[in-house]
């Protein structure tokens, strides 16, 4: 963004109408009335209407959604601040990098600058209230003359994203209106409310796969460097009415202590204001930890990440909760009892959409008011966090050689880090770091930079603490996963350099990589994930594709040699349950990114049979076997969405395999193959209690049989992604174990309890059946578009 872009959006005062439109006049009803949801185009037009009628707000489209809707952000502040917006942006950028700004100059900027607060709403579209709250809060802030509002407008730059998932706003509204007055009113729609990720769209904040994520990061986070980012959510209805920080343990050690302390301060102030307004059921230091960067982008970029989670209604349909329905167990507190972090329990009664909005309005105002009154100290601490980051000495740097076994994945890793504003440098000459001699062209990520915490948490191995509900008891569940080590997920050699070294370095913006092995002329390495995109493009252009059956290398022209054979383009079917599965969406995204053709298969498509004439391979994404078999039970959804594969589906899948098809099951879907297709294997961790076996999103070491087509291009030892994933003992002598856990040392990054249950067990199986094969993945090889190294296992399974 150029510094003049903001002022280009200002409207001439002479064009402003006299009256700011009320929400009721625009939407045809008051905000928060029962059984009324909003259309995204009306939300967009309302915000543009506010910008045309008030000199306190600017509105800009900052991108398009996955389905092509406008993705907007509003900037709200006092008119004199908006007229000098370029100057405040310049101050933020100077304070964001202390290398540019000496302490004496920074002191002047602390006095002049404004606190920048970004509030994002309804990233989860079934959490409907916050888009309504954004509409009403913006209107109030523009029209009500109150001392707190005047202070907010004077001392903050408020960036507001009315929805982080506009597609989902319309999907949920459309479904809600369709089911109003029926038995299904208030249910969630039978489709993912973000095209590819559904509820996982707030787990995308370090791989940046989706357009909404990329727009928010590139146009707001990385431009304005907000001191506070407040993400507004909802949770289940049977406990607290709202959660705000302080966070539960653990706190990622790469999050600066100042950030964590300020989150405690601002969160506790929100709790004070909510309680002071008479709102009961306020929980702090409960449920949500401060660990995963998949949700906490700004916390590694010198800003606070504030979260609130409000109790939900049935979308916009009110519910009544009886006292006996209030849970007696929640992570970090008992919702039925008074405690220091839950001082006024809420013990039931009616709960409306309007109630959620009322809580959220107080929380939004409180957050912005705290930012306003603590403006100078927020700016000062923001600068100090950057100073601490550029003074980091341990480790000194990470080095990524330009020669890699998987050049495409390695380039993607560096591009991902660079998108998150990590500075990457390239060696202009050979250098020595530690005991290793590196080449010109190798990449260096020094830790003496403002966002070294971000780089460090993504590049190092995680050591998640062994937290229990009580000594010797079940594990204390992390809110999300426990590992995010990109070099392990992506198969990239990354060296950690402890001590200082000298090298002739230049900033790098492009990241060309070379293959570390030897290839015949014209070959595409099986180890390079980009080779799969190349062969799909070749097929689409009408060309032929050949593969070396010894090395797995691809050729796009005929190649001499007994081991080279032509391979056909696979006809891929991807199962899509009516009960939406995020893993299905991620699988679609990965297939599309690498340009595989596929067809989505619903229950009737499979139950109709004759699958082998239409498909070579069918993929069943990660989903519980009971969901695959039975789907939504009768009466829970309209009839056309109920049921699963049933007996006809399992019979059709068996026939498909015996006739020569390949049937691929990902992660927990593998249990379906054992229970319904007669696969002779036993999932050794199925039914084991969590106090004995627990792997809540971790990277585990495995050993591969590299003599199989499925393992072409893979090293002998890799890591897999496990979320209590299955592992097997095999009773079928014809089965091929293609991946096996070692006898010890299984944990590579994250947290694992019960290593003994996995030691020596199978993690990837090729099970012959008739003329075909059933392939069981004890992992999600395409996990959240992150595990690039294991994409190749998945892609190989699609090819003949």
Blueprint of the fold:
Blueprint: H1 23-27, H2 40-53, E1 57-64, E2 70-76, H3 79-83, H4 85-96, H5 103-112, E3 115-121, H6 129-143, H7 147-155, E4 156-161, H8 166-179, H9 211-224, E5 228-235, E6 242-243, E7 248-251, H10 257-276, E8 282-283, E9 289-290, E10 304-311, E11 319-321, E12 349-351, H11 353-373, H12 375-390, E13 397-400, E14 403-404, H13 407-419, E15 425-427, E16 431-433, E17 436-438, E18 443-446, H14 452-459, H15 486-490, E19 495-497, E20 505-507, E21 514-515, E22 523-524, H16 530-540, E23 545-548, E24 554-555, E25 564-567, E26 572-575, H17 582-593, E27 599-601, H18 603-607, E28 617-620, H19 625-630, H20 646-658, E29 662-666, H21 670-676, E30 681-683, E31 696-704, E32 717-723, E33 728-730, E34 736-740, E35 747-749, H22 755-758, E36 762-769, E37 772-777, H23 788-798
Parallel strand pairs: 3-4, 3-5, 5-10, 6-8, 7-9, 14-21, 26-27, 26-28, 28-29, 29-37
Antiparallel strand pairs: 1-2, 2-4, 6-10, 11-12, 13-18, 13-19, 15-18, 15-20, 16-17, 22-24, 23-24, 23-25, 30-33, 31-32, 31-34, 31-35, 34-36, 36-37
Structure in words:
It is built from 23 helices and 37 strands. The chain is α/β, with parallel strands linked by helices and 800 residues long. It has four domains: 7-21 and 53-177 and 189-389, Zn peptidases (Aminopeptidase); 392-515, no CATH class; 523-550 and 553-566, no CATH class; 570-798, Rossmann fold. The strands form nine sheets. Strands 26, 27, 28, 29, 31, 32, 34, 35, 36 and 37 form a ten-stranded mixed beta sheet that branches. An eight-stranded mixed beta sheet has the order 1-2-4-3-5-10-6-8, with helices on both faces. Strands 19-13-18-15-20 form a five-stranded antiparallel beta sheet. α6 crosses α11.
